Structure formats: structure tokens, C-alpha cells
Amino acid sequence: MPDLLLELYSEEIPARMQREAQENLRKLVTDKLVDAGLTYEGAKAFSTPRRLALAVHGLLAKSKDVREEKKGPRVDAPERAIEGFVKSAGLKSINEAKVQQDKKGDFYIAVIEKKGRKAEDVIKEIVPEVVRGFPWPKSMRWGSGALNWVRPLHSIVCTFGPETEEPEVVRFAIDGVDSGDHTRGHPVMAPGRIKVKRLEDYLHSLDKAKVVADRDRRKAMILADAKDLALAQGLELVEDEGLLEEVAGLVEWPVVLLGEFDKSYLDIPPEVIRATIRANQKCFVLRDPKSTSPFETPAARAPQGEVKKKPHPEEARSAVSKDGTGALANKFILVSNLEAKDGGAAIKAGNARVIRARLSDAKFFWDQDRKTKLEARLPKFSGITFHEKLGTQAERIERIARLAKELVPIVKADPAKAERAARLAKLDLVTEMVGEFPELQGLMGKYYALAEGIEPEIAAALEEHYKPQGPNDRVPTSPVSVAVALADKIDTLVGFWAIDEKPTGSKDPYALRRAALGVIRLVVDNKIRLPLLGAFAKARKNFSEANDLLAFFADRLKVHLRDQGARHDLVDAVFSLEGQDDLLMIVRRVEALGKFLSTDNGRNLLAGYKRVANIVGIEEKKDKKSYTGEPDAKLLQQPEEKTLADAIQKVEGEVAAALKKEDFEGAMAAISKLRAPVDSFFDKVTVNADDKALRENRLKLLNRIRAATRTVADFSKIGG
After folding, report:
1. Which residues contact 70 (CB under 8 A, 6 or more apart)?
2. 374-595: CATH topology
3. pLDDT digit string (tens) for 580-624?
4. Which residues lie below 8 Å from residue 409, measured CB to CB, with a gap of 6+?
5. Which of 3.80.30.20, 3.30.565.10, 1.10.730.10, 3.10.110.10 is the CATH number of 600-717?
6. What's the CA dihedral at 289, 294, 295, 298 to 10 degrees?
């Protein structure tokens, strides 16, 4: 079957746009091909700084003929309806339709036949559509043209044909740029025109012309060469997935080089060195596993075991977090787009000059900032507005300090340490270093605190109170850090809820979803008993939005537990119970409920409950009354209803005793004992008896099942 090759060659595409652009090109083109009746076996997209490309394999040469019947109005319908049908069906007149009879009368039927189209005709139609409507985050026009593209478009390759024959050029033009079968190689090392045919030839020809078209292959080459260069020096590469993705989008022919900077700059905190080199020169840093950094004190060291995944978009600070052990070396890895005649000496020297200048600035900030103690910076915050409706940063700091101290008994922290850590936590925001590198906030506060001789536990809290910043970020465990982290996040949530600045749809400018998830992870991971409504009251007096904020936490908890494999309806079933604001207990109850419902007893009891709820609900609606209250024991006539009443009474006591001990699995086990008597009741007892008193008594008995199960969870919220 034939293959399609498409390349759009332009001036340099920003690295951050390339990955999404190549996937958009693949999806947009293949979706339109399928919509036109052209199926395919596989498709792969490519991107480099100067090109987007797509190869579609096994594409049908022609779409199939289609014959369909479209039903129209009755033959005696108004003339306007018939005219509308003729137009929509593409008929010249109603005489071209046939009449078909069914039980409702005679109807017009239009037989629509569409001839299959050649793939070349479809391609020349859809590619210009895709290009003209391409969803670039930012685009531009140039010259007198009307095309919006990320950068000026220079050439288009579009070939199509079977593997056994020479592919043909699919001819079309976009804003004066004609399609053809020629591309260009590396703009410096092989700038000439290259004739290409299909994918294999295209990739091979570009390789010879110093272009690696496959983005993932470029990433793999960079990573492997960087590790090899580091290993040759007895060092280790500090891996950085985000930087690797960006650098792969800056080069077409990656040449990995090793550079060096002055050892004196190693007196700067390692995260500062890494941030400086990363931000200014897009270079990787190396570490010496045999050496120890002076900054690697117990309080300064990042806990091991942190999840190493692709950074979450919200985790900006992950780019500067430590991973692995050993001090940074005075070496760096750079990736050039050029095989230089001098082996890259000039390129390395140029990068080293820029890095030296930037590290010199960073060292100046480090030295200057340490001349002023953190607490001496506090008065500045009185003149900095946190939010016009929530006061200054100084007022916010006071709120966090007060709340952290109130949370101390819950998290078992030292009150004086928690209060002091809270007062110091935000003070590095006005330092020169954080002004230059905002992603280092908190971390620099810790380093400045340690330099002042502040206790390590307090210093650590200055960094850790921002955590966790996303689903892959680590959760603090030190009681002081936990107290300040909870106070910071709860104050933020309660404050913005109080002024009605809540997240809407995809908009969350104050990162309130992240703050709520942070509270959830802090509480659950550290097994903290924190009643949320009480915490809200501590954070703000007369807080009227507490229930709404609690519902927001329920939604965030659903997301958190769903990511761990739990069902969101179970969270609803637990949150629906009155007074459920203890996150740790909610999670434990959800876990127990999930285990219970995975058993036969659980599934059968749920089915029985739904039958009970359905019967009682229907009768309550019909009678316009609720069947609450105790059933009359004298009216329990059949053995099955007496057995059920006894079972309910016994189970209620067992469930209450289990819940008092917070034994949720025990409560579920107790409630499961209702399964057999419920089944027997429905087998032998007629609920809607002719005797009104008997009917009402049986409905009250069934309602007691609803009430008994509701002490464990609201089963009406559970699906299945």
C-alpha cells in the first residue's frame, strides 16, 4: 500500500512548541484522511528546530464508493419540508427520490452515491487546510502573504506512492510556497537542497546532511553522550528531563561537549549553580560521587526516595532539586548544533565566559544576601500587598505563624519552633538571589537560615513549607515543616474562599487546587488527624464558606484517590455522611469500603440495598410521606421479617462499636451480616400488603436497613 511523506520546512521553531506541534500535525492530518475514507496502517511525526514532518504508512490509494439511503418526509408533507429534503440530500428534484412504505405511511427516500476519491486528491485538499488552521500558541505573518505560521515557511515536501514504485509529488501551493520533493540539510554543515522520496530515504538523506529528524533519537543521543563524557571524568550527569527535552529542540545535529568553570564558584549553593547554568546557557551540570558538598548537611540534604518522573508542569522547583549524592563538579555539559573544526574549543570557551559572568553575579547575590539577617527583612513585607482584599504579606505571615502554632498539638511539633519557622518562611522572597531565580524560594531561605546558625529543623521548614508542589513532589515529614506547610496552604485556601476567588473551570490563578492537594497529601501521608472544619475556623473567624470549601476538598480527594486506583463514588459515599471532615479517616473508610464491595457479600448487600432504597423511595414519593421511625414489633408476622428486624438491631450495635474504635473493616463485616436476612425477606415477604398498617410497618423495617448502612457509608452514592 502507498505511503505519504509530508515535511513543512521553516525558520526556527521555538523548542517549547515542537513536541506538541508534531503530535498536532499527526492527529490533524490522519483524522482528515480517515474522515475522507482513507484508512492507514501507521503514522509517525517528527520535529526539529526547522521542520515538522509526518510519515503515514499503508494509506489507501483510493477511498471506497459509498452508497447510503437518507429518509425524508412523508409524501404528503408540506412543500417546504420536501424542498428542504431535496436540498439537503443533494437532489435536483424530488423525482430523483424513491418512495418507501412503512407502518406510518409513504416516505421519500434519497439514494446517495458517493464515488471514491483518489488519495492524491484528498491530500492536496486537506494539507493546505491543516497548515492554514494549525493551532500554534503564537504565529506570525511575513511579507505580503496571508498565512499564519510559527515562522516563515520556506518549502513543502509532499510525496505519495507505493513502496514498489517511485512516489509522485502531490502538487499544491500554500501562500506561494509550492509542494515538491526537495528539502534542506543542516543550515551550516550541509545547506544544499536534497531530493527525497519516502520516509526511509528521507531519514537516511537527512542523516547524511547532518540532521537527525527523530526528536526522541536526538534526546537519546544527547543523554548517552553526556553520560559517557561524565564517566570519562569520573563524574555523574545530573539528569534533567525538562532541560533534555528543550535542548533536543534547539539542535538538529547534537554535538555534546564538556566545559569547565572556576572551582571558586563551588562555594555557592549547588542549586544556584545548576539554576544559573541551566537558565542562561541550557547546560547540564555534573557531580562527583566521591566528594561531599559543604551544603549537604542533614538539614540541607533532600530526602532520598523522591519520585523521579517527568516533572509535573506545576513543579517549577523540580528543575533545581537535588537527586543523587556528591558535590557538584566544576564541569558542565553543553550541546552544540555544529561539528566545529577546532573540536568545539571556541564553543566551550564562549559558553564558559557566559557561565563565569552569570556565576559571578550569583556569587555576588549570595554574599550580599548573607549580610542581612532574615528577620531584619520582615519590615519590608508591611509595604508589600499579598492581595488587595487579604492585606499585606506581613499580615499574611502573622496569620500563618498564628495558625502554625495552633496546629502544633495536632502535628506534635514544638510550638516555638513552628511559630518562628512560620515567621521566617517567606523572608527570602526579598533577597537578591530569589529575585533573580524565583524557583529557588524557600530553598535559599533554608541556606540563609543555616548560615545564620538557626536550628536545622527550623531552617528545613523554610524550604519544605512549600511542599508538596505536585503529585510527584515529596511530602515533608518533620513536624515543624508539616505545621508550617499546613498553615500556609490552609490560610491561602480559606482566604481566597472568603473573598470568593475560587477556581473556575480550567482557571486557577492562585493554585488553590494544588494547595488543597498539598493539604491532603500532608495529612494522609503523615497520618495526621486534622478535622478540616476546625482548621478552617482556626484560620479565619466567622468563615461562612466552610462547607463549600469542604466540598472542594472532596473533589480534590477524589482526584487523589482516583490516581491511586480508588473509585470516586466511594469518596462521595463517605463524604455524604454527616460530619466527615477528617481526611485520614475518610481515606481509611474509603479503603475499607472498597475492600468490602470487592467481596461477594459486599456486592450482594449493595444490590439488596438498592432494591430496598428503590422500593421505599417509590412508596414515599407515591404516599408523599417518609417511612422513618421504629417498626412495631407486634406487626412483624412472618418469620423472615422478625429475623430481619433482629438482625438489624444486632448489626446496629456491632457497627456502632466498630466505628467507635475506628475499625472500619469491622463495621463493614458487621453490616455484611444483613445480606442473608435481606435476601430471605424479599423471597418470602410481600412489602405492599393489602393491610395498610402491615405495609407501613414493613416499609419502616426496610428503611431501617437504609439507616443502618448509612452509618458506614451512603450506599445511594455508590454505582454498580
Report:
1. 88, 89, 109, 110, 112
2. Hypothetical protein af1432 (1.10.3210)
3. 899 999 999 999 999 999 999 888 889 888 999 999 999 999 999
4. none
5. 1.10.730.10
6. 80
